[in-house]
Amino acid sequence: MDAISVIRTKRDRGELSDGQIDWVIDAYTRGDVADYQMAALNMAILLNGMNRREISTWTAAMIASGERMDFSSLSRPTADKHSTGGVGDKITLPLAPLVAACGAAVPQLSGRGLGHTGGTLDKLESIPGWRAALSNDEMLSVLDSVGAVICAAGDGLAPADKKLYALRDVTGTVEAIPLIASSIMSKKIAEGTGSLVLDVKVGTGAFMKTIEDARELASTMVGLGADHGVRTVALLTDMSTPLGLTAGNALEVRESVEVLAGGGPSDVVELTLALAREMLDAAGIKDADPAKALADGSAMDAWRRMITAQGGDPDAPLPTSREQHVVKAAASGVLTRLDAYDIGVAAWRLGAGRARKEDPVQAAAGIELHAKPGDTVTEGQPLLTLHTDTPERFAYALEAVTDSYEVAAPGTAFTTAPVVRE
Ligand code: URA
């Protein structure tokens, strides 16, 4: 077998055989297929797709590239959630401790920023001392003692995804349903969770721009979960506008702590509670009340214990940016559009994301939103504050936000998109 013939098969719209898929994933993981060859194959998959059998074999090969975890020693049922990625999507941060406070064990293996979307690990690393890399024993011990752990997948878990994820991020090959579905589900199945709630984002700021694509991604992942005995449900949620009022690493941690303290933006609270209810239901926990766990401080307690158990100081001040730039409303009226993709790109250009896979991210870079669609704004009021440590980035980031919003005549009606359960 050789990489060139596998690339040619997909380039020419053929079906990859099980043997080709098993070989290429294994050879890439071992370093026998080069990054540039895998990038070419990913691009051919993005352009020409894969059928259900190919996706299933590709996912199984990614699972088989590493070890599988086992949580059967835990006394609590396990429940996990995964978002397909969005802008300002900090939901994992309040959600994991909240669901733990309600009685489930949440083994949340998370990723880094991908394209214009932020990554949970990059966000949490803005907390002084916090460590994303835990050994399997450490992960199990935090999960057992706190009920929630958010960490990087260990080197042994789906190593093929680790390499592919970083490669796709910098080769324009993120937005392929087979690659997203296999990336997410290989990690979740190898991780060994009993149940999984998928938050499939749809809209400009998501990888899936249309409801049809989001449905296809959701049903592909639900099918892969069922094939491997993981109870999997999916919510389709709006990502045409950023979630909450922040996009960027430390900015999003701050907002998540506000939610855990009983405040925070209503869309973040609403989605956190909706996903918590689905996770508890999928884990078979019927009598818990997540809204109460937010209000009575038990979710905050779990957060503090989780951060401390991973070396972080929950009381340490979060980094703040050296430079800010404020974008003001040019007219009075109703904000009818604030585009999630544009805001995500601008946050990424300010330093919240990576241009090359080895790049560091700036903890304090990002964007604060001072109004959301549906809000009335007055001429001259701040709409956005851009944050960075490197002010030469402002011009490039401002290019991305110039057309990111619309202010319509006062009184214009505005409705938000509902959450859809698949
Ligand atoms: N999240 C993942 O883990 N992988 C993807 O490909 C996209 C989002």
Automatic annotation (TrEMBL):
Functional summary from the UniProt entry: The enzymes which catalyze the reversible phosphorolysis of pyrimidine nucleosides are involved in the degradation of these compounds and in their utilization as carbon and energy sources, or in the rescue of pyrimidine bases for nucleotide synthesis.
Keywords: Glycosyltransferase, Transferase
Name of this chain's protein: Thymidine phosphorylase
Reactions listed under catalytic activity: thymidine + phosphate = 2-deoxy-alpha-D-ribose 1-phosphate + thymine
InterPro entries hit by this protein: Glycosyl_Trfase_fam3, Glycosyl_Trfase_fam3_N_dom, Glycosyl_Trfase_fam3_N_dom_sf, Nuc_phospho_transferase, PYNP-like_C_sf, PYNP_C, Pyrmidine_PPas_bac/euk, Pyrmidine_PPase_CS
Molecular function per GO: 1,4-alpha-oligoglucan phosphorylase activity; thymidine phosphorylase activity
The protein's Enzyme Commission number: 2.4.2.4
SMART domains: PYNP_C
PANTHER family: THYMIDINE PHOSPHORYLASE
Similarity field: Belongs to the thymidine/pyrimidine-nucleoside phosphorylase family.
SUPFAM superfamilies: Nucleoside phosphorylase/phosphoribosyltransferase catalytic domain (SSF52418), Nucleoside phosphorylase/phosphoribosyltransferase N-terminal domain (SSF47648), Pyrimidine nucleoside phosphorylase C-terminal domain (SSF54680)
